[in-house]
Structures are given as structure tokens and as C-alpha cells.
Design goal:
12 strands, 2 domains, five-stranded antiparallel sheet, 33% strand
Length: 255
């Protein structure tokens, strides 16, 4: 069994549609899960602490899943999915944890379905964008993530695409957990380096420690939605009030 097929089986192999599910909902959910795997998702599909091993799908179910995988379009847009469940009184093990996608804005949801324990589940779909990171040589992790605008070349000013800029929460609060991030939803802006660098589309962009500060001269913040603070399955953080518009951020050299 291929890794792609295995992933779709793990997420959808034990579910069946309810009478309230739209026609073709399960097939569409499997296409979306396959799309997420094809575009890079390898984990955080769901969280089920019950410890039960799902039953092995029968040949008919496997054929249906394989048929759904074949419907993934070429060069699909980035997608991420989460299998969302709820506690039910009739479940033998009603314990459920927080889904990795909790708090994120849905693109679409597929269901409702029932799992092997007759618990209701949905497959939530999220649009995703490729992020570019900036990291200083010698540092353990990047200090900035931003949407990939597709720019390549030599420049000291890198344009930013609409999306979300992610900054480690520890840069704002020293006691913040290491896996906490602050996200600022933007319409555009730029990253200003102290000198020109070759940008080839790879991530992270590695800077020498003595390269000088990195600034965002004017982030055009989106005010249509409340800023969101989650990155993959990282803890979610919220600002108490929105920052000024436009916003300038600066990262100072440590060396």
C-alpha cells in the first residue's frame, strides 16, 4: 500500500456517511485528504486518544478510496485537512482531544460521517499557502515566516504576498512557550534586509549573524478578520488589541 493510500485510509477508511451527509460527501472528503497529502501534509490529520486501532477497510472501501485518489487534479492548490470529532454518550471511549485545526478558519467541511464507534466526525478543509522562513546562521529556529510571493533574484527588499506573517511569541513575551507563534494577517508589504541577498525560493533564507537587522517597513494589515494565531498544530495566541496600521517590525542582529 502506497504512503498516499495509507494516509487516506487512516483518515477516512473507517467512516461512513450519515443520512444527513450530502451525496458524494465521503468521496469529496477523500479527494481533499489525498490533495493535502500530495501537497505536503504528513501528520496532524486528527487526534484520537482512544488508542483503538481502526478496522481494516474491506476491498470495496479500498477501491472507492483509490478511485477518489485518482480524482486529485494535477498541480492542486495547497490544502490541509483535520478530522474533527465530538464526544458522544454512547461511545465506549468518549474521550476526545482538541483537533489540530481548532480555531482556524475553514475553507470547507465535509460530513457528517460516523466512525467505527458511531461517533460523528467531519473532515475539515483549510486553504494553505507556502511559507518562507528567515533564520540566522547559528540560531536554533527562524525568527520570521511569511507567505511566498514567488520572487527570485538578488534584492535587499523582498515583497510579501497576502496571507499571514508568523513571528515567535517569545519575541513579544519572554515567558511564552517555544512552540507559540503570533500571526498577523496582511494584504502586502515587504521585508527589508541590510544588504542584497540572493533569493532562490528555498526556505529558510539563511543570514550571517553579522548581516544586520531585518525590517518590515510597512506591513499592510488586513482588518477584515480578527488576527489568527496558530501555525500547524502549534498553540494559538491572540493579541489583546490589533496593532497599528501600517505596522513596522524590526529584528536586530545578535552578532
Amino acid at each position: 500500500m502506497s504512503d498516499l493510500l495509507q494516509s487516506v485510509v487512516e483518515v477516512t477508511g473507517d467512516v461512513r456517511p450519515t443520512i444527513d451527509a450530502p451525496a458524494g460527501a465521503l468521496t469529496q472528503a477523500r479527494i481533499v485528504v489525498a490533495t493535502a497529502v500530495v501537497t505536503g501534509q504528513q501528520s496532524d490529520f486528527f487526534q484520537d486518544p482512544s488508542g483503538l486501532t481502526p478496522p481494516v477497510p474491506d476491498p470495496t472501501t479500498l477501491n472507492e478510496i483509490q478511485a477518489a485518489i485518482q480524482q486529485v487534479p494535477p498541480n492542486p492548490p495547497l490544502r490541509r485537512v483535520v478530522r474533527r470529532g465530538f464526544v458522544t454518550r454512547i461511545s465506549p471511549i468518549p474521550k476526545l482531544g482538541v483537533a489540530p485545526g481548532a480555531g482556524r478558519g475553514l475553507t470547507a467541511t465535509h460530513g457528517p460521517f460516523l466512525d467505527a464507534l458511531d461517533r460523528p466526525v467531519w473532515i475539515d478543509e483549510f486553504a494553505a499557502s507556502r511559507l518562507i522562513a528567515i533564520q540566522r546562521l547559528g540560531d536554533a529556529a527562524p525568527f520570521l515566516y511569511f507567505p511566498d510571493s514567488g520572487f527570485t533574484g538578488t534584492t535587499d527588499t523582498l515583497p510579501l504576498a497576502p496571507g499571514t506573517v508568523w513571528i515567535p511569541a517569545s519575541q513579544f513575551v519572554t515567558t511564552a512557550p517555544g512552540d507559540g507563534f503570533v500571526g498577523l494577517r496582511i494584504l502586502g508589504g515587504s521585508v527589508k534586509f541590510s544588504r542584497p541577498f540572493v533569493i532562490d525560493g528555498s526556505s529558510p533564507i539563511l543570514l550571517p549573524r553579522g548581516a544586520g537587522p531585518v525590517r518590515t517597513p510597512a506591513l499592510q494589515l488586513s482588518r477584515h478578520r480578527r488576527p489568527r494565531y496558530s501555525f500547524s498544530n502549534l498553540r494559538e495566541r491572540f493579541l489583546t488589541r490589533p496593532p497599528p496600521h501600517p505596522l513596522q517590525l524590526s529584528e536586530h542582529s545578535a552578532g
